[in-house]
Design brief:
Pfam families: PhoX. By secondary structure, this protein is mainly beta. About 10% of the residues lie in helices and about 30% in strands. The protein has ten helices and 27 strands. The strands form five sheets. Strands 12-13-14-15-16-20-19-18-17 form a nine-stranded antiparallel β-sheet. Strands 2, 3, 4, 5 and 6 form a five-stranded antiparallel β-sheet that branches. Bound molecules: MU-OXO-diiron and calcium ion (CA) (3 copies).
């Protein structure tokens, strides 16, 4: 049965309303929807699309409850939580937090984030799941106030990636602790560099004079999946793990990546000199990469792919272009940073995974520049090549070679005039490969910092709500430099700000509003799933928005419907589907953050724990239909 809300306006009307709101805000006249449509191929294509909603579930209301709420006819169950054993001989979770590093290294890591599912058979699969960081207030009885050497090692063992086999028994998925692929990858796992920066002098350390053998991964935010069966984990806020108590003059590059010459909050440098920025000047350059992992081989060595650039990587959205080149879209999640694209030198060869596994070694990195006329929320854009010797990336401008361009990709992006963005988080490519979406989560510095002017895809000063950008590569060819863009959605609060662009676009109402879109991903039918990492105070600008949540968007109609709400003080992040699309896996990250009163998922007086949840339909149907 179709239950599309007939009151939902057409996409063109939404754009028009959006423009009217913008003109109200800026005191300028708006252009009409007709003009917009004629200018905007993305909207034109959508206007021709089906008007039937893809979504056949009842929206859930906003929530402040300490639970996961899903639509009527759906059930959410727990798959695995921080501290659960992932090997047959691993100890059970000890809520006291007094277990050692060696125990944590055999258990599911903390703060699950991006994840991918790799099918093995109809009733067996492997899940690779990022463990972004850890919560000292729950990890240790002393909450981080008296860090010992083993405590640092325990924190290093709680982050990275967890690889777990799951098996379907009696109709539902569960972790198989005996799974041959089960593995923990931590801040101390041996890795290798590949690509143009591998072996660069800026990557050499006393422990690795070749600059080829980095150790560990952490700050693993979101993810990607390749068609040759590997997992991509993306290193984001790595700077917070480096510090020193010595006097040190930092370089501008250090500062651009957030490194500070003071003791770090994670305190790793106290007991592990690798993280003392004064003693190991280059160690920090060995983080901020996309790491490729073979989830099917627990003995494989993860590979840091330098060709994809070094920044605070959010996720890696990979698409095989129609000519076979592999294109990876990459966001750099920091206020005023950039959006990137990698195009492989060689082409995907179906069935030849030995060769395909080399595709991310060599290619070209680009960064996005967005253009818009003054009053438009759409326009054209281009990808600017970040190749040494081109576009001013020369010795005269401070770059010695391609390795340095990649290691300091942020500086290279500024050099070529890339657009500063409102914190690019996840990118998702529509399954028909014509459109690409990116969450711009929020940016309090927009219109405040001189290099972050209001305009184009970043249309609001002190943007507290975020927006979802969409672009359409010219000729649906992801290797080309040109694209058209618009905003699929502008989050906002129409109850608090009814008459300005802070109300959000017309597809945002008092019933579906939220802030800070972050995780996004498509299912096979082209539903856009939107996860939030926002302000959950439910007050002021955010009143009526409740806990963090997941919504579903129909890219054809623009309709957005809330599908799930999370427990207290969590973020909803991480999305994967079983191959039959009948189980959805989502992540609940840090319920009870900073001591907020959550006891999810155990209830009672239990310690809150980051958890992977499985969403199924009671009638066994496909999620969302
Ligand atoms: Fe780890 Fe940008 O989120
Ligand atoms: Ca995120
Ligand atoms: Ca976020
Ligand atoms: Ca988070």
């Amino acid at each position: 049965m179709k239950n599309r809300d007939d009151k939902q306006p057409a996409f063109s009307e939404m754009i028009e309303s959006c423009l009217n709101r913008r003109s109200f805000l800026l005191g300028a006249s708006a252009i009409g929807a007709g003009a917009f449509l004629s200018l905007n191929p993305v909207a034109t294509a959508l206007a021709r699309s089906s008007s039937d909603s893809l979504m056949q579930f009842s929206a859930v209301p906003v929530s402040t409850a300490d639970s996961v709420v899903v639509p009527k006819g759906y059930t959410a169950t727990q798959l695995i939580s921080w501290g659960d054993p992932i090997f047959s001989d691993a100890p059970r979770f000890n809520p006291k937090g007094s277990d050692s590093a060696s125990v944590q290294a055999r258990q599911f890591g903390d703060n699950n984030d991006g994840m991918s599912l790799f099918p093995i058979s109809a009733d067996r699969a492997v899940l690779a799941i990022n463990n972004e960081y850890t919560n000292y207030e729950y990890l240790f009885p002393h909450q981080g106030s008296e860090m010992t050497k083993d405590d640092v090692l325990k924190a290093q063992s709680a982050v990275g990636v967890s690889v777990v086999e799951i098996v379907k028994r009696n109709g539902s998925w569960e972790v198989d602790k005996a799974g041959a692929r089960n593995r923990r990858i931590t801040a101390n796992t041996q890795m290798v560099f590949s690509g143009p920066a591998a072996g660069h002098s800026l990557l050499k350390t006393n422990d690795d004079r070749q600059g080829m053998h980095p150790v560990g991964t952490f700050a693993n935010c979101a993810n990607g999946k390749t068609p040759w069966g590997t997992y991509l984990t993306c290193e984001e806020n790595f700077d917070g793990y480096f510090g020193t108590d010595q006097d040190l003059t930092l370089t501008d590059d250090d500062k651009r990546y957030g490194v500070e010459a003071e003791p770090s909050s994670t305190q790793w440098e106290k007991h592990d000199q690798r993280f003392d920025i004064a003693k190991n000047r280059n160690e920090v350059n060995r983080f901020g990469w996309v790491v490729e992992i073979d989830p099917h081989d627990p003995n494989s060595t993860p590979v840091k792919r330098t060709a994809l650039g070094r920044f605070k990587h959010e996720n890696a959205a990979l698409v095989v272009n129609k000519d076979g080149h592999v294109v990876v879209y990459l966001g750099d999640d920091e206020r005023g940073e950039h959006l990137y694209k990698f195009v492989s030198k060689n082409k995907f060869q179906p069935g030849n995974d030995t060769e395909n596994r080399k595709l991310l070694e060599e290619g070209t990195l680009y960064v996005a520049e967005f253009n818009a006329d003054d009053q438009e929320l759409s326009g054209k854009g281009k990808w600017i090549e970040l190749t040494y010797g081109k576009n001013g990336l020369t010795k005269g401008n401070g770059f010695s070679d391609q390795g340095e361009v990649l290691i300091f990709a942020r500086r290279a992006a500024t050099q070529v005039g890339a657009t500063t963005m409102d914190r690019p988080e996840w990118v998702a490519v529509h399954p028909d490969k014509t459109q690409v979406f990116c969450t711009l989560t929020n940016n309090k510095n927009r219109g405040v910092e001189e290099d972050q002017p209001v305009g184009g895809p970043n249309p609001r000063a002190k943007n507290q709500y975020g927006q979802i950008l969409r672009w359409q590569p010219k000729n649906s060819d992801h290797t080309l430099d040109e694209f058209d863009w618009d905003l699929y959605l502008i989050a906002g609060n129409p109850s608090v700000h009814p008459d300005s662009l802070y109300a959000g676009s017309q597809n945002i109402t008092a019933d579906n509003m939220f802030n800070s879109p972050d995780g996004i991903g498509f299912d096979d039918a082209g539903r856009l799933w939107i996860q939030t990492d926002g302000n959950y105070s439910n007050k002021g600008d955010f009143s009526g928005q409740g806990n963090n949540q997941m919504l579903c968007g129909d890219p054809n109609t623009g309709e957005v419907r809330r599908f799930l709400t999370g427990p207290i003080a969590c973020e909803i992040t991480g999305l994967a589907f079983s191959e039959d699309q009948r189980t959805m896996f989502i992540g609940v990250q840090h319920p009870g953050e900073k001591g907020a009163p959550s006891h999810f998922p155990g209830g009672g007086n239990s310690k809150p724990r980051s958890t992977i949840m499985m969403i199924t339909r009671d009638d066994g149907g496909i999620i969302g239909t």
